[in-house]
Amino acid sequence: MIDRRKSLLALAAATLAFGAHAQNTVTRILVGATPGGGTDIVARALAQELSTRLGRQFIVDNRPGAAGNIAAQAVAQAKPDGGTLLLSYTSHVINPTLYGKLPFDPLNDFTPLAGIASLPAILVARPNFPAGNMREFIDVAKAHPGKYNMAIAGLGSANHLAGESLKLDGGIDITGVPYKGTGPALQDVVAGQIDLVISGVASVQQLLKAGKVKALGVTSARRVTEFPHIGPVADVIPGFDFSSWYGLFGPAGMDAAEAEKISAAARAALQSPAMRERFAHEGLIPMGTGRAEFTAFVKSEIPRWGKIVTATGAKPE
């Protein structure tokens, strides 16, 4: 009788182990954006690499809405078994202050796994704007307060807040004009109906090469490889450094070994020629930070962006 009971217990344990293994043969990477956007592109490239490296399927699950909060909440509430992950954007650290109160904690309800990529932006102007670099721009804007306008492609976005910081730190008065997206904003800058916009490198690189917009400065502290002739805003406004970023998270409480395995695979994926070529095409700079470093980075980013949201009074769309 005892042997029979032991056999049954062993069978039950084996069944549970098989079920847990089967459940994790597919890992969903939730993305808080629609297909085709920057976050989705990064997630799909990463999912393909992780599938190859870890020998199980990683798929992208789009959950757009509320600036990424819907996807983030779903991951925060998921089982910490490695079956559900989040590919998040800078909004992950902006939203806690922007929205005031969220149904999850951006740090404590997640397991930060790896920093994936950063995305510098460029301040561009209409082709006939009366300034060709940052210093000239600051001088012109100060000489004509309130005369010029800047498109805001997404209220509360990283680029919006970078623009607000530019106004505060540069001591200039520019009128913000909200737009539903980067595409329409750039169209109006090209047409000369809007003076300025801050946009990611990938969105403006073809327009810059065609001479349809004029670059005034990059928002990152360093120059962008693709456009080494464009000086950083920081050359004129010391300390100015605003780049968006993408990071991989799991739910809080993940097994340390499983978390490290996924983190290591993600970092290794960033070294692949295919991934680097894709990132270069999108204007992305690989980060490749591990769990401890990425956790510290996220922790520091929450108050940094929070101060900007508070100072500018930015509100979500």
Features:
317 residues; ten-stranded mixed beta sheet; 11 helices; 44% helix; disordered N terminus
Which secondary structure elements does this structure contain, and how are they paired or packed?
Elements: H1 2-23, E1 26-31, H2 38-54, E2 57-62, H3 69-76, E3 84-89, H4 91-98, E4 110-125, H5 134-143, E5 149-153, H6 158-170, E6 175-179, H7 182-190, E7 196-200, H8 201-209, E8 214-218, E9 243-251, H9 256-269, H10 273-281, E10 285-289, H11 291-312
Parallel strand pairs: 1-2, 1-3, 5-6, 5-7
Antiparallel strand pairs: 3-9, 4-7, 4-8, 4-9, 4-10
Helix pairs in contact: 2-9, 4-11, 6-11
Q: What does this entry look like structurally?
A:
- It is a single chain.
- With 317 residues, the protein is of the alpha/beta class.
- Strands 1, 2, 3, 4, 5, 6, 7, 8, 9 and 10 form a 10-stranded mixed sheet that branches.
- It is globular, with a radius of gyration of 22 Å.
Task: Summarize it.
By secondary structure, the chain is of the alpha/beta class. The chain is 44% helix and 21% strand.
Work out the radius of gyration: 22 Å
Q: Specify the helix fraction band.
A: 40-55%
Oligomerization state of this entry?
Answer: single chain
Average pLDDT for all residues: 90
Strand content: 15-25%
Coarse structural class: alpha/beta
pLDDT < 50 runs, ≥5 residues:
1-23
Number of strands: 10
Shape: globular
What is the overall number of helices?
11
Q: What kind of sheet is the major sheet?
A: 10 strands, mixed
End-to-end distance, in Å?
67 Å
Series of H and E elements: HEHEHEHEHEHEHEHEEHHEH
